[in-house]
UniProtKB/TrEMBL annotation:
InterPro entries: DUF892_YciF-like, Ferritin-like, Ferritin-like_SF, YciF. Pfam families: DUF892. This is Uncharacterized protein. The lineage of its organism: Bacteria, Pseudomonadati, Bacteroidota, Chitinophagia, Chitinophagales. It comes from Flavihumibacter petaseus NBRC 106054. It comes from the Bacteria.
Length: 152
């Protein structure tokens, strides 16, 4: 087999594998975003500071927009939107809800809630950033553009 044919076959296999990773990552983040829609109101209710409550409520609105964007991506890829349990976000949400239960209302609890929210946000940034790179590598700038909206 010539080097050109071998290289082309490897490139095709690489793209197929990367496409599967993107698909799995989309299912993962779709579940994660939907799970956050359920968790954020609990964090807002537990917050003491009114500005923090407002921040959680605003983030809930953004998270709903993220769900809609991921649904658009699935549609662009010709797939039905579906989620797959995201162990990372499940764990981060569980940890945040433990903060709600373990600490008395006040500045320290609010600080712990902020830390919990930042952990989830960093997970999202890593996931979306990687998916944007995968989409670009696969020649799906339309998908990359949508996913980039989440990072803006």
């Amino acid at each position: 087999m010539s080097n050109t044919k071998k290289s082309t076959r490897q490139g095709t296999q690489h793209a197929e594998h990367l496409g599967k990773i993107l698909d799995e990552s989309l299912k993962d983040i779709y579940w994660a975003e939907n799970h956050l829609v359920k968790t954020l109101p609990k964090l807002s209710a537990a917050a003491t500071d009114e500005l923090l409550k407002e921040a959680f409520d605003a983030h809930l609105g953004q998270t709903r927009e993220h769900v809609a964007i991921v649904e658009q991506v699935f549609k662009l890829l010709g797939k039905e939107a579906s989620g797959k349990r995201c162990a990372a976000m499940a764990g981060l949400s569980e940890e945040a809800l433990e903060v709600v239960e373990q600490h008395e209302a006040g500045a320290a609890k609010d600080a712990a809630l902020i830390m919990s929210a930042q952990k989830a946000e960093h997970y999202e940034i890593a996931a979306y950033g990687s998916m944007v790179s995968f989409a670009i590598h696969l020649g799906r700038e339309d998908v990359a553009d949508l996913l980039t909206e989440v990072l803006s």
